[in-house]
Amino acid sequence: MAAAYAASNGVRSKRPRMLDQATAPAAQDVILAIENLRKSFPVTAAGGVGKAALLKAVEDVSFTMRRGEVVGLVGESGSGKSTIGKLVLRLLDASGGRVVFDGVDLNTLSRGELRRMRRRMQMIFQDPFSSLNPYFRIRDILAEALVVHDIGSGREDRYARVERLLELVGLPVSFATRYPHELSGGQRQRVGIARALAVEPALVVADEAVSALDVSNQAQILNVLMDLRAAFGLSMLFISHNMAVVQNIADSVVVLYLGRVMEIAPTEALFAAPHHPYTIALLSSIPIPDPELKRRRIALTGEIPSPIDPPSGCVFRTRCPVALPACAEQVPALRAVGEGRFSACIRDEAAASILA
């Protein structure tokens, strides 16, 4: 499927793996560790009358990322993907759990310490237009990050750095004097990538970085991200609802549903043999451009439940095609189902039952 998507949309073949996915990450190789992360938002009734409720956007999420790794964070809208991205950079404060970046618990940092740490953590936003100041020229948008973090010896030096950044993301140097509205969507997203790279971060969070673009621009941006990852060894949390895109860029995948982790696995293993029923349903939705290839479609019924009042036990059970009465009794823990693979499902034979 990845090859078909890449061939039909102009994405270059996936580069060789930089990491041995069968190898357990040593402590010194882990750049990001998410430990039992939770985030709830208080929600008041309409008109402010009535008892406030808690919207559980992220609930007990844990995973790790190695240096130079791209981790795909996938799930439907409302699964908590973007919230996790903001929690990782501490753009939001967590309700519980920890985010440990390069051995440092971000929750323990003061405002000044966090600001200095943010030089090493950057974000590529979903909307390349609203994330750029319309009153600034491109060179000033990119130079602003350099000024904030005291990089460069003066205006001329910073503008020279800006020109190198533009070349790095495949834009002409002449674009430096343009305004955001004078650029196409794909060009603006390249500026967003250049801005994230301006401070030479170790970790980049890409939040739906290609979802607002047409297919041809998606392919171009994915190629840019692949090149930059290979050139600089960037670690990247790639947030997307598009499984085909994630398959092309990620080393491992974390599957989310209603704020909880359903499955974690190396990309190739997950796409070859998904374990969790929700993962199977997501993968069955990927279109195949070859009419000769047939695949059973697993259609999920109903809407994703409200995070204010999630189902008891397994949050996916109300839409799961193989749910058992026991699924309502307890929240399934992530358990090992293979080397480097984890699934939050009590049924070992779930995949076989669905695909039979």
Brief characterization of the structure:
The chain has about 350 residues and is α/β, with parallel strands linked by helices.
Structural overview:
The chain has 356 residues and is of the alpha/beta class. The protein folds into two domains: 296 residues, Rossmann fold, CATH 3.40.50.300; 41 residues, no CATH class. The protein contains eleven helices and twelve strands. Strands 6-7-8-3-9-10-12-11 form an eight-stranded mixed sheet, sandwiched between helices. The N terminus is likely disordered.
Topology:
Elements: H1 2-9, E1 30-43, E2 53-66, E3 70-74, H2 81-88, E4 96-101, E5 104-105, H3 111-117, E6 121-124, H4 138-148, H5 155-168, H6 185-197, E7 203-207, H7 215-232, E8 235-240, H8 243-249, E9 252-257, E10 260-266, H9 267-272, H10 277-284, E11 335-338, E12 341-343, H11 350-355
Parallel strand pairs: 3-8, 3-9, 6-7, 7-8
Antiparallel strand pairs: 1-2, 1-4, 4-5, 9-10, 10-12, 11-12
Helix pairs in contact: 1-8, 4-5, 5-6, 6-7
